[in-house]
Amino acid sequence: MEPPKNHPRYVSLMTRDKLVRGWEEGLVATQGLIAHGRGEAFDYLLGERTTEEGDLAEKVSAAMLLLAEHPVISVNGNVGALVPEEIRLLSDALDCPVEINIFHRTEERVSTLSGRMRDVGCGKVLGERPDREIPGLDHARAMCTDEGIFTADVVLVPLEDGDRCQALKDMGKRVITIDLNPLSRTARSADVTIVDNLIRAVPAVTAFVRSLEKDPHLWKGIVEGYDNMENLENVLSRMVSTHLLDSGKS
Ligand code: ATP
Ligand code: MG
């Protein structure tokens, strides 16, 4: 049953429903449901809105993706269930491929996810025929494609595992992640960490790409002036401050 639109947790409840449907359709791993729960807890501490720090990281991500020669967007089960159209819009804006890259890999789930991304209009969906491995990871988690993640210079990996994020960094790539937990290893090893919910972050990055695409002279300055650790410290302070208690949030 759908919650009433004026329910204070409406968006959160609808997002859960979407994820459960994604699980029923075979897009989302059971573990993905648990990972979402951890994300929700951090989102609650943010007031379920995009903060100044999230907004800044979204802008820097857009500039970094625009500067990239070969950007790739990595898609896992939760991403495919929650924001497939939004990812398609971002990949259109950047004219870049998406690559299915899942932690709990089964060929069936890779194929279901690829189908979902094609259904929403993604032109280039990679990952079904991996022909390369990311060094330093075990075989199942290392698989990627030469055309995509292996040769990318900038990778957007929403909800990535910490070890894989580090392995991509060790390959010399710039890594952008979306992760509501500012303390996770992923958050701390990426070049840019967007501490915001996927459902808000992906459209926000696309909006920045669209607004910055005609001003290439601005891109470098936006990226160079950014300090990811400082931004993480700021968002963490925001989470532990008492401002939420004063705002009458239910
Ligand atoms: P690591 O320390 O290895 O990075 P982790 O704590 O991040 O581990 P994961 O299994 O990678 O553990 O968990 C997925 C991450 O995704 C969690 O940190 C969670 O906060 C985040 N997350 C879950 N759902 C969302 C969402 N909708 N938007 C943004 N982040 C999310
Ligand atoms: Mg992580």
Description:
With 250 residues, this protein is an alpha/beta fold. The chain has one domain: Phosphopantoate/pantothenate synthetase (Rossmann fold, 3-Layer(aba) Sandwich). Helices cover 54% and strands 10% of the residues. It has 13 helices and 8 strands. The strands form 2 sheets. It has a 6-stranded parallel beta sheet, with helices on both faces. α9 links the parallel β7 and β8. The chain starts with 9 loop residues before the first helix and ends with a helix. The relative contact order is 0.17. Bound molecules: adenosine-5'-triphosphate and magnesium ion.
Q: How would you summarize this macromolecular structure in one to three sentences?
A:
This protein is an alpha/beta fold. The protein has helices at 10-24, 30-45, 52-67, 77-82, 84-94, 107-119, 139-142, 162-170, 185-189, 198-212, 216-224, 228-240, 243-246, and strands at residues 71-75, 98-100, 125-126, 132-133, 143-144, 154-156, 174-178, 192-194.
Summarize the SSE layout with pairings.
Layout: H1 10-24, H2 30-45, H3 52-67, E1 71-75, H4 77-82, H5 84-94, E2 98-100, H6 107-119, E3 125-126, E4 132-133, H7 139-142, E5 143-144, E6 154-156, H8 162-170, E7 174-178, H9 185-189, E8 192-194, H10 198-212, H11 216-224, H12 228-240, H13 243-246
Parallel strand pairs: 1-2, 1-6, 2-3, 6-7, 7-8
Antiparallel strand pairs: 4-5
The chain binds adenosine-5'-triphosphate and magnesium ion (MG).
List keywords for this structure.
Rossmann fold, 6-stranded parallel beta sheet, binds magnesium ion, alpha/beta, single chain, binds adenosine-5'-triphosphate, globular
